Structure formats: C-alpha cells, structure tokens
Amino acid sequence: MSPNALRRRIGQLLIVGFNGHQVPPELRSLVRQFSLGGVILFARNVADPDQVAELSYEASRLAADLPLWVSIDQEGGRVARLKAPFTEWPPMITLGRSGDQRLAERFARALASELKAVGVTLDYAPVLDVHTNPKNPVIGDRALAEQAADVARLGGAIVRTLQAEGIAACGKHFPGHGDTSTDSHHELPLVEHPPERLRETEFVPFKAAIEAGVATIMTAHVFVPSLDDTRPATLSRRIVGDILRGELGFDGVILSDDLEMKAVANEYPVPRAAVMAIEAGCDGVLVCSGDHDTQAAALEEIVHAVEDERLRLSRVEDALKRQQRAKERFLAAPVGPRPLGGRQLRAAIGRDEHQAIAREMARYL
Predict the structure, then answer these.
(1) 219 forms bridges with which residues in the sheet?
(2) For the segment 26-36, what is each residue's pLDDT rounded down to a tens digit?
(3) Which entry of 21, 50, 183, 185 is annotated as an active-site residue?
(4) Core-most of 75, 241, 251, 359, by most CB within 10 Å?
(5) Is 193 an active-site residue?
(6) Residue 336 pLDDT > 80, yes or no?
(7) In which domain, by residue range, is 306 found?
(8) Catalytic site residue 185?
C-alpha cells in the first residue's frame, strides 16, 4: 500500500464523536484527509427523531468509498441516547430476571426497528459482562444477569435478533467488566481473577456471542494481571490478539472502548493509545469527544507508526479488511433514499407494541 493510499484509508480505523445536531465542518475536513470508519451519536447530537434521521443519512455518506458506521450506545436503562418519543427501555437486568429468551428477542427486534428508522447501523449492545459484583459502579443493572450461562443465552439471542434485523451488534466489554469496583471512565479497574475463573465465567457470554455471529466486540479498559501484568486489556496483544482472536476464535471486528476514558488516557496519550490498540489487535478505535484535533492526531500517529515500522502494515491491512467485510455484510446496499420523516417516522418509533414490550420488561425491575 502506497503512503498516499494508506493515508486515504487509515481513517477507517477510527470512529469519532462530535458536537452538535449537524455534521460539523471539522469532521468533513477529517474525512477528506483520511476517510473515516464511522461516527458515534450521543445525547448531545439528538434533538428529535427527524433531526437524528437526517444526521445519520448525512454522516453515513461522508466518505465516497465505504459508508460510515452510524453507531450509538442504545442499551436500555441508564445507557440510552435516544429518549422519548423513542421507546424508553428498562435496564437489561430485567431480561435476566424474567429468564424469558423470547422477551429478549422481542425487545431486540423492536429496538432494531427504531434504530433502523433513524439510520443507525451499529449498536454497542448487548453488554455481556456478568453481574457478579453488586458494588460495581459502572455495569450493575446494565448486565443481563448474575450467571454466565444466563448472560450467554440472552446475549446470544439479542445478537442474533438485532443482526437478523440489519443492525450490527457489539458485545462488550471483553475480557469482562462485571466484577470491578471502580469506573473505567475515571480510573483503571482491576480484575484479580485467575485465567481459569475468567474462562469459566467472564468469557462464556462472549463465546456465545461469537457463535451467534456477532459483528463486533468491544474491549474493556481493565487491568487483568493474570493475563497481562503490564498493559490494560484494550492495549494488550495477549488479551486482544492471543485470547479473543486466537483462543476464542473471534473473526469479526474488535473495537476499543473510548480511548479518552481516564482508565487509559491517564497513562497513555490518545495518539499513542490508538497505535497500541491497533498493534494489540483492535480493528478500530473510538475517540468520542468532539475534539477533532485529537482525532486527527491519532490518525497521524498511526500513519507515522506504519512509516517508522513501529506498527506492521500487515496488521493495519488486516484491520481494514475486517472493517470492510463487516460493512459489506451490514451496509452492502447503497445508501438509499432519504430517511423517513414526519408522520411516517413518528409511526415507526415508540409504537404501542414496543411500549407494551417495555412495560412487560419493567415488571421485573
């Protein structure tokens, strides 16, 4: 790959956040320089359903070669960027308490239909962490259940259903964030379990998701000294490359959690962390603030790392191929006509049958 071709394609490794209800000029400039893998929407990008649909349509078409992912954290409960008039889903622990796989499938089908209506193509769900620590400040009721087998069964059902409806799913947070006592948004959590326990508990839902064909898996910013006593999981070749890719046989796209979270950023500047994550085996990294200078610096650092042979070109090419395969699977159709709007869109979201599913889930709060 020539230096110019590398520079044009390297942006496929980055999914970015931005500010405002429209695509900002700085983001367009970033795409012109590097292309781009995708965008992630937060509450700060959401005004109303019509605006989200227009924004998704515009963002997906920014790059001429491959459509961008339009991604979001829409789990339910406290992690949901789309509020009413979208259906507001209870936390996922309700599904575990119900034990009802069919209810999980109905939820996922309804969720997918509302995401599709506004042009979202990748949802960072389901959470596959096992809720083994009731004092966990960041996972808690976001988890599906307290037993690995239940998380595996329900998580696999959600993955299969979301993806059958055309939404790429993302299992998170590997190698497991369920038994931590600190929040990785603020500091690096410690996971002290030996490898045997991790294989018996934490890895089980991820195996089920892989068997279900999950498109993407997100790494956790956690420190697991029994697996790697030097680096956090996101930056660990042993955890990402050897275990997730090698031992568990995941052949899809591995994404980092947001590299600006303090669990990583306190120790590693974002550009350096981006290179380390790709080197470890991630196929894409998230940089979620609206700081486009930092996003551009991360891409420049990846280019320089390849040029200086600190990062193998073959590793970058592998990551690019995985991104392309996933996009061909979920974004194969050309970007279609303008999205639904007005009355048609309002009829597609917050529908009575979706509200009924949410109420059924809420009985298990």
Answers:
(1) 174
(2) 999 999 999 99
(3) 185
(4) 75
(5) no
(6) no
(7) 3-362
(8) yes
